[in-house]
Each structure stands twice: as structure tokens, then as C-alpha cells.
Amino acid sequence: MDEAVQNRHESPLDENRCLTPVLVKWRTAMAVPLAHRLGALRERDFRLLFLGTTITSVGDRLAGIALAFTVLDIASATALGIVFAVRQGMEALVVVAGGVLPDRVPRNLVLVGASLVQGALGGDPPAAVRLGRSTGHRQGSSAP
User: Which of 75, 86, 87, 108 lies at a 20 to 30 A Cα distance from 64?
Assistant: First the structure.
């Protein structure tokens, strides 16, 4: 009886027996070619949309952080609150007004145009500070 138990444990046919269910599922998934595992990303148009949306989202989040540090560098925390309130208000107006545009213009032009405008305007405030064109100055400092 002990020999049968040893032979059963040494059997190469049942190699998944020792693995956890997660590892078995992973090994099964790895047997499927990469092209089939990508799903919707196999479609070129969807890949471009996904990549553009990802870049825009990351850039938008980083722009908010850059804006906060820029405002704090040249003004106070109160000014930062005002800047973010104005930014949110403008975003709300753009969303409301922008709801009409996709009904009259092809959607791909709206997506690309909105991303280009967002990218151009998002980099403007930090660029103005770096170039010394900002109107504010740090409290207690004599530099413009």
C-alpha cells in the first residue's frame, strides 16, 4: 500500500496536483496565445482610443498636481482653493456646453480635438511660471 502511495506522488502525469488553483489557472491562461488574451485590444481603433484615454487621464492628474505646486509657489493656500474652484467651475461649463458638440460633429474629431485643447491648455500655467510670465509673486519676495 505504501508503494502505491509513493508511486502516485511521483507520477509526472499529475503535475498540477501540487499547485494552487490560482497557479493552475495561470498556467492554463499562459497556454492561450497573447493575441487571444488581449481581447478588445486586438482592434487597432480600440488600442488607439485606450492609449489616448490613458495618456490624457495621467496627464490630467499630473497637471492638477503641478498646478497645486505652482500656485503654492507663487501665492497662498487660499489662492490655491480659489484656483481649483475656478478650474472645477470651468470644467462644469465645458461639460455642459460640450454635450451638444458631438451631436453635430463626428465623434472622432471631438475626441481628438478635446484632447489637443486639453493638452495645450493644461501645460500653459506651469510654462508661464517657468518662463517668468506669471503675474503673481511669492509673499515676502521682491521678485515679480
Answer: 108
Domain identity same for 50 and 67: yes
C-alpha 67/C-alpha 88 separation (Å) is 13
Residues 57 and 122 reside in one and the same domain: yes
Which pLDDT tens digit goes with each residue over 30-83?
666 766 777 888 889 888 889 988 988 888 888 888 888 888 888 899 999 998
Helix ranges, the chain (H): 2-10, 21-30, 34-37, 44-74, 77-98, 101-104, 107-122, 124-130
What per-residue string of b and e applies to 70-94 under the rule 16 or more CB within 10 Å gives b? bbeeebeeeebeebeeeeeeeeeee
- How many residues belong to the chain? 144
Q: Answer whether residue 141 is part of any domain.
A: no
Packing angle, helices 77-98 and 44-74, rounded to 10: 150
Angstrom distance (rounded) from CA 30 to CA 27? 5
Q: Is the pTM value of this prediction over 0.70? A: no
